[in-house]
Design brief:
This protein is an all-alpha fold and 487 residues long. The chain has a single domain (17-482), classed as Amino acid/polyamine transporter I, CATH 1.20.1740.10. Helix content is 75%, strand content 0%. The longest helix has 38 residues, at 93-130. It is globular, with a radius of gyration of 22 Å.
């Protein structure tokens, strides 16, 4: 069997383009160290109050078993298709194609989400620098600028994407940590440092508030799976990809829990909800309180963080869409790559156009902050559904094709815990409470998610009737499943 570095990625993706550092950076930037605080902390605290650190730790516990399942199966079947390829080969191509469509939806919506957030911070930047009146028009200007910048980085190839990601990540980590430590030090010097934010029992609205906030803590973790979509472009993916997935989740989970502790002390619990309702980012308010005019640094790093996530979201979406187009389960148009840069340009064209259209419509309909809330909730829904099936697929794959390696703990208990920890937030966060939030914030999101699930199911069924030949595992991979892998 050939080594990972020697094997060519099928159909022309640039094999070996990414190092271990570049691969890890893609995952870290997708999970956005800064945006977990800048973007999601306000929405978490609006629902859960001061216990954001506890919510982040709960999200880590929910995510970690699934991350391990991702790592275990990614080591055996490295593929740009990620969960689509794994489930096609472990359970059935029918299930794999359906989940692949949901995975495409996850990354597709994650792309749409980013310029909306960029627009919010762009407005904040204009206010800080020029004291101008901002609104929908300046927000849309930010949407267009961010899309143009990301286009320049995403189209030339994944190596440029990774290099930009590393630089952005280092700056983000330093600024968020510095601001949080400033707040903690100030409270310590005044004898006001407290540990109550680590107690989930103190959630603002009790159990319901805890799970409502959990949606946006989980949104912070959504991106860990993007690492697996770069498998065909990574040097030695069988060893690099699994380590990057698990370590990325653990390190960033701890980082968010620690840094959110400081921010949680800066405002009273109900102030977070008040600012969110008014369309004001509460983290920007906190930055002004503690860093005064220097808070502009926070705004600038928030902007670079959004650009990083925007960039990596395109990488994840385009490669899953490419893998499905290459196999014929999505239109062949998506399975074509640029002859020079070896990236799925066609897939990128579609999502960038859809992003501009969606931002234009949703920003006008819901307003600026609620647009991010709406799309973020939808992203978490599809991510949790995909996670459940990845856990099931991991257990089934090892039981069917690696029977001698099968462990009741790693391939039985861990996927079971991952399925449960993905299902519970799905039920409690997307059930009656979200429906009761009204049409704009809740019911429209639920109906949108259900419609995508139904449409993808119907598409898969029709495909199985019209093109049954594409819903078969590739014959050249059968021997790979049956033979043990090497690192």
């Amino acid at each position: 069997m050939t080594s990972d570095s020697q094997r060519e990625a099928p159909e022309g993706l640039k094999a070996g383009a990414l190092s271990a550092l570049g691969t890890a950076a893609l995952g870290a930037v997708m999970m956005a160290p800064a945006l977990g605080i800048y973007a999601n902390l306000g929405l978490i605290s609006a629902d859960s109050g001061e216990v954001a650190p506890a919510v982040f730790l709960l999200a880590l516990l929910c995510t970690l078993p699934t991350a391990v399942s991702y790592a275990l199966i990614a080591r055996e079947l490295p593929s740009a298709g990620s969960a689509y390829s794994w489930l096609s080969e472990s359970i059935s191509p029918l299930i794999g194609t359906w989940v692949g469509l949901l995975l495409v939806a996850t990354y597709f919506l994650a792309v749409i989400l980013q310029p909306m957030l960029f627009g919010l911070f762009f407005n904040e930047l204009l206010t800080a620098l020029f004291q101008v009146q901002t609104g929908y028009g300046t927000w849309m200007l930010g949407v267009v600028i961010s899309t143009l910048l990301v286009t320049l980085l995403a189209y030339p190839g994944i190596q440029i994407s990774a290099k930009a990601s590393i630089a952005l990540m280092i700056v983000e980590l330093a600024v968020v940590l510095a601001l949080s430590c400033t707040i903690l030090t100030s409270h310590w010097l005044h004898g006001e440092l407290r540990f109550t934010p680590l107690n989930p029992a103190r959630a603002l609205h009790g159990f319901h508030g805890l799970f409502a906030g959990l949606v946006f803590a989980l949104l912070s973790f959504v991106g860990f799976g993007v690492i697996t979509t770069a498998a065909e472009e990574t040097h030695s993916p069988r060893s690099i990809i699994p380590r990057s997935v698990v370590l990325g989740c653990v390190l960033l989970g701890v980082f968010w829990a620690f840094t959110s502790w400081g921010f949680s002390l800066a405002l009273e619990p109900r102030q977070w909800a008040d600012y969110v309702t008014k369309g004001i980012n509460p983290v920007a308010v906190v930055a002004r309180l503690y860093w005064r005019s220097a808070y502009i640094v926070v705004v600038l790093t928030a902007i670079t963080a959004v650009l990083g996530v925007y960039l990596v979201s395109i990488v994840g979406y385009a490669r899953v869409a490419y893998a499905m187009g290459r196999d014929g389960t999505l239109p062949e148009y998506l399975g074509r790559i640029h002859p020079k840069y070896q990236v799925p340009w066609n897939a990128q064209h579609i999502v960038l156009i859809a992003t501009l259209v969606s931002a234009t419509l949703w920003g006008r309909w819901l307003g600026l902050y609620l647009s991010y809330d709406w799309w973020g909730t939808a992203v978490v829904f599809f991510s949790m559904v995909s996670n459940i099936f990845v856990n099931v697929g991991c257990a089934v794959f090892f039981y069917r094709f690696r029977r001698r390696q099968f462990s009741r703990w790693w391939h039985g208990l861990v996927p079971f815990l991952g399925s449960i920890s993905s299902f519970l937030p799905l039920y409690y966060s997307f059930g009656p409470d979200l429906w009761a939030a009204g049409w704009k914030k809740g019911q429209s999101v639920i109906l949108f998610c259900i419609s995508i699930v139904v449409a993808s199911s119907l598409y898969t069924i029709v495909l199985s009737r019209l093109k049954p030949e594409v819903l078969r595992p590739p014959s050249e991979r059968i021997e790979l499943w049956k033979s043990p892998t090497s690192s």
